[in-house]
Amino acid sequence: MEERVVVVVGYDEAELLDIACVTTSLITANRLGASPAYAVSVATPGGRAITCDPGLTLQGQRSLERLRGPLDTLIVSGGFGHDAAADNPRIIGHVRRLARESRRVASVCTGATVLAAAGLLNGKRATTHWQNAEQLARTYPEITVDPAPIYIRDGSVSTAAGVTSALDLTLAFIDEDHGAELARAVARGLVTYLQRPGNQAQMSMFTATPAPTNNLVKRAVDHIVSHLAGDLTATALAAEAGVGERHLTRLFIDHLGKAPGRFVRDARTAAAAHLLTSTSIPVASVAARCGFKTAETLRQAFVSRYGTSPSRYRATQSTPAT
Length: 322
Known about the structure:
Elements: E1 4-9, H1 16-31, E2 38-44, E3 50-51, E4 57-58, E5 62-63, E6 71-76, H2 82-86, H3 89-100, E7 102-108, H4 111-117, E8 125-126, H5 133-139, E9 144-145, E10 151-154, E11 157-160, H6 165-178, H7 180-189, H8 215-226, H9 234-241, H10 245-256, H11 260-278, H12 283-289, H13 295-306, H14 310-317
Parallel strand pairs: 1-2, 1-6, 2-5, 6-7, 7-11, 8-9
Antiparallel strand pairs: 3-4, 10-11
C-alpha cells in the first residue's frame, strides 16, 4: 500500500515547535499502525540546514526546488522568518507549485502569511496566530481572517492558529485519514487532549491575565474565577471592588477588552468545558457549578462560544480512561 507523503516546509527562523508538532504526531501514528503510513519529511530551500527560531539548527531532508508531487499533504510552518519567506519569490513559487500537486494544503501559525503570498487563501476563511491576525487581514483583504479559532478548514486548505495548534490540526488529519480511534491513541501517546475542536478559542480565559499594574482588575478576576456559582452581576462585582459599575466596566474594557458580564459568561463557559471533559458530572450539575441558572442557559452559551452543544462537546473531546 502506498504511503501518504507529507512535506513540512521550513525556512530560516521557522518555529521548531510548529514543525515538530506535525512530524512527531504523524510518526507516532505510524508506530501505532497507521496504514497507509505517513512518509514525513522537512523540505527547505536547497535542502540545506535552517536555523530555527529557538536558535537550533534543523537539517532539511528534501530540497524545496527539486521536490515533485503528487503529495498527500503540504504544510507550511510559521515563525519569525515568515515575512522574509513570504517575500522570497522562489519559496512562494515552489509552495504554489507544490500546492497544485497536493491533496490538501495547510499552514501553522504565521505560515498563513506564506500561503497568502502564494494566493492560496484568496476567497477563503483562515486563521493565524492572534498577534498576527490584524496584519494578515490588512495585507491580504481578499482573505476572511478569523483570529479566534485554533484552526480552520476551508475546503482542501487548512490554517492553524499558533504553535501547538499544529498538534490539534494534525490529530484532525489523522482522524480523517485513519479514524478517531487512532487519533485518540496518538493523543494518549503524546499525553495531550484528544484534539480540541477547531472552533475553540485561541486564548483561554485562565491564561489571559489582566495587566499586573491594575490590582483592582486582577482582584475582580480572581474573585470571578473562584466564585463562578455566586452572584457575579455587574452590581455585585462593583460592590466587591468598591467602585461604581461604570468605572468597573471601563476598567474591564481597557484591560481585558470586554465588559464584566461578557468576561463572567466566558469564564463560566470555559470552566464548564473543563468539567465536561474531565469529569462525568451530569450536564445540569456542571451548569449549576459554573453559575448557569439552567442547563439550557449553559447550552446557549456553549453553542455561542464553541459552536456545539455541551453533550456533543463532551462526547467528542473527552479522552477515554486507559
